[in-house]
Design a protein that fits this description.
By secondary structure, the protein is an all-alpha fold. The protein folds into 2 domains: 2-35; 46-77. The protein has helices at residues 2-10, 19-35, 46-52, 60-77. The longest helix is centred in the C-terminal third of the chain and has 18 residues, at 60-77. This is Transposase.
C-alpha cells in the first residue's frame, strides 16, 4: 500500500495520454524506485501493536485455547 501510494503521487499525478506512455512511465518510475530503496521505520513491534490496537486484533491466545478445546471434544466423540 505504501508503494502504491508513493507511485500514485510521484508518477500518476498527471494526465497520461495513452497506454504505451503509461507503461513506459511506470517502468521508469519502478526502476528508479527499486534502485534506491528506503528503509521503513516501524514505530512499534507486534507486542506493542497488540496493546495499542487491541480492538483490531483478536485475542490469539484465547482463540487458540478455544480451538484446542473444540479439537479435544471432537477427538473424544470419535
Amino acid at each position: 500500500e505504501i508503494g502504491i501510494n508513493i507511485m500514485t503521487r510521484e508518477c500518476l499525478n498527471r494526465r497520461i495520454p495513452d497506454i504505451e506512455t503509461l507503461r513506459a512511465e511506470l517502468k521508469a518510475w519502478n526502476e528508479a524506485y527499486n534502485s534506491a530503496p528506503t528503509e521503513i521505520n516501524w514505530q512499534f513491534s507486534n507486542e506493542t501493536s497488540r496493546i495499542k490496537l487491541k480492538s483490531l486484533y483478536p485475542d490469539i491466545d484465547r482463540n487458540q485455547e478455544l480451538r484446542d478445546q473444540l479439537r479435544q471434544k471432537k477427538s473424544q466423540i470419535k
